[in-house]
Amino acid sequence: MRATVMYGAGDVRIEHVPDASIDAPTDAVVRVTGAAICGSDLWPYGSKPADSAPQRMGHEFIGVVEDLGSAITTLQRGDLVISPFLWQDNTCDYCRRGLTSSCRHGGGYGHANDGGQGEAVRVPQAAGTLVKLNVAPDSSLMPSLLTLTDVFCTGHHAAVCGHVGNGSTVAVVGDGAVGLSAVLAARRLGAERIILIGRHTVRTDVGREFGATDVVTERGSEATALVRDLTGGNGVDAVLECVGHADALETAFGAVRDGGYVSRVGVPQYTEGPIGMDMIARNLTLTGGVAPARAYLEQLLPDVLDGTIEPGKVFDRTVDLAGVPAGYQAMADRQALKVAVTP
Amino acid sequence: MRATVMYGAGDVRIEHVPDASIDAPTDAVVRVTGAAICGSDLWPYGSKPADSAPQRMGHEFIGVVEDLGSAITTLQRGDLVISPFLWQDNTCDYCRRGLTSSCRHGGGYGHANDGGQGEAVRVPQAAGTLVKLNVAPDSSLMPSLLTLTDVFCTGHHAAVCGHVGNGSTVAVVGDGAVGLSAVLAARRLGAERIILIGRHTVRTDVGREFGATDVVTERGSEATALVRDLTGGNGVDAVLECVGHADALETAFGAVRDGGYVSRVGVPQYTEGPIGMDMIARNLTLTGGVAPARAYLEQLLPDVLDGTIEPGKVFDRTVDLAGVPAGYQAMADRQALKVAVTP
User: Where are the domain boundaries for CATH 3.40.50.720 in chain B?
Assistant: First the structure.
């Protein structure tokens, strides 16, 4: 089959790889009908050493069950299914408490495993991982459903960890697909004021459509000052940090009110951060992390199915497999916000 | 009047200072009947430059109202009152949401203001700050009541921020008075397993009396490994970090389970810390801060008054004002756990 392989920074290729197949009785093979390129794919696309081992790519996909291991009784061949970006048994103690991203038998797509940006994927722990979709494969809901694999669940996680609720004031750092998803998630959870910090008008326009009440195009201390101006000098109840750079974190700490939450879902491009006396004096909480998408998926699905939310508006380009390398470049160049892949 | 003044590291003196007096209509003057030396007083005692401005000391005290500003109607001369370690109006938006440590009109004792380790204290925002105690000044409850000024509220804050509740597994880093208070607070909130990390038998014995189910005397990675051994390899739901050193924080991150809380109440002796990918991958939350003691005081008071808890057991020495310098040295040398001051 054909699949996406990254060799190094800027070097993404579509290659023939061994067909996806059942290795364990708990596996399924899913033929991909829709996939996506993730903002996190851009980190290795920007920095992967050319002499490192090539890695398979993609962790956001929907598809049709093609083959099933003998232990799986809850799915059938031909089912249209969605996979969260990690696999999990959905039965262990971590899964039971909703932290599916720390599943005792969990793991991730890509690298040495099949990835979503390919024709088919071996899905370990398929019974715990895959959720059947009762829609047609060509449903117009497909882009929004695809966001439930990762990006919208990740934005939702930022908001949940930030204790966003009715009447909250929120700032979102970053106008990428995760940031915009965080805006939509915050609105869905009842936030009253949502300040989006981002500089790309095309994107912040989507942010306004998703519920941003204010847009701040400045960065750093100027952004912080503007957020404080907009909130009577106080700062916001929660900052959802959807970038991962150290300066975004600094902006977040500057924009949050005393006793508030800085909730991170960006992949941190730093190892140390400013957690000294200011954080203690102001009782700031630093939270967030890798989203337990499986735990959120079924909870968010109804709002997508009935059209209450349309998180799929973050997609602004669709490519076939051959177009994946160009899709990476378009996202890296910020010519595309988020690219869907139809193999 | 006489009061404690710190000139530099190791240089604490009892001096004559101007009498405490009413400066604003919202002030009170309280004649101190009981005070304490705080673990946080030991930081300047260890490091204050000799050429820095001398500072008044002490922020934990109980006393009798001696004088009242004209705006105060809720207190009377002669009332026995307790003060949390910060003053606050107890009416602003931060106070109303329980974050009295961020009061809009708040401040702290000592430095250029009167401190608790003296004969009397001018208390700003007295109506919002002071809580009347309906006990005799010589009550045997006095040591435990005194802990409500700071140390027990601080331990309680660590447990509250760490979401400690019924059935929680908890590790407490540090066997100082705050760490022991955190043990007691965690037990009071229903923790099932409380692992105290500390090396001083006299102190960990108090910890066991307060509810520690296990004591780990190792440090660093050995402590982390032992906490994991004691919790089936998982780590604890919450680590209450009651020291403030970078290595204590590292121990905390190592001992907490995925999705758990590292709750800090030690004064951080670092400006940067390890908040990179491990924290994100494991969904760890870093929380805690300066305790809003005023908000907790009335909530914790009944359990002290009826003897349900005896947090005053952290005191193991009492000095008069003249004995304060020796009290500092005894705490710095770890010959005393916590020193009470009876002026």
Answer: 154-288
- Which has the closest alpha carbon to B55: B67, B69, B68, B40? B40
Which tokens sit at B16?
């004559």
Answer yes or no: do B258 and A102 touch at CB < 8 A: yes
Chain B within 8 Å of A323 (Cβ-Cβ)? no
Q: Could you name the CATH architecture of B154-288?
A: 3-Layer(aba) Sandwich (3.40)
The pLDDT value recorded for residue A266 is 85
Q: Which residue of B has its CA nearest to A288?
A: B283
Residues from chain B that touch A273, judged by Cβ atoms under 8 A, are: 272-273, 275-276
**Is any Cβ of chain B less than 8 angstroms from the Cβ of A302?**
no
For domain A2-150+292-341, the CATH superfamily is Medium-chain alcohol dehydrogenases, catalytic domain (3.90.180.10)
Residue A51 confidence (pLDDT) above 90:
yes
Stretch B232-250: mean pLDDT, rounded?
Answer: 96
Q: Which of A275, A287, A292 sits opposite B272 (nearest CB)?
A: A275
- CATH 3.90.180.10 domain span(s) along chain A: 2-150+292-341
Q: Tens of pLDDT along B93-123?
A: 999 999 999 999 999 999 999 999 999 999 9
pLDDT digit string, tens, across residues A14-46: 999 999 999 999 999 999 999 999 999 999 999
Identify the CATH homologous superfamily for domain A152-288: NAD(P)-binding Rossmann-like Domain (3.40.50.720)
Residue A275 sits at the chain B interface (C-beta within 8 Å): yes
ipTM of model? 0.96
Q: What is the layout of strands, in order, in the sheet containing A2-8?
A: A11-16, A2-8, A55-56
Which whole-number Å values give the CA distances from A132 to A32, A71, A79, A298, B217, in the listed order? 14, 17, 6, 10, 51
CA of B212 to nearest chain A CA: how many angstroms apart? 25
Q: How far is CA A52 from CA A7, A38, A49, A89, A111, in A?
A: 7, 21, 5, 31, 11
Tell me the average pLDDT of chain A. 97
Q: Residues 226-255, chain A: which have Cβ within 8 Å of B?
A: none
Cα–Cα distance measured from residue A200 to residue B59, given in angstroms and rounded to the nearest whole number: 50
Q: What is the pLDDT of residues B127-147, one digit of tens each?
A: 999 999 999 989 999 999 999
Strands A61-68 and A28-36: antiparallel
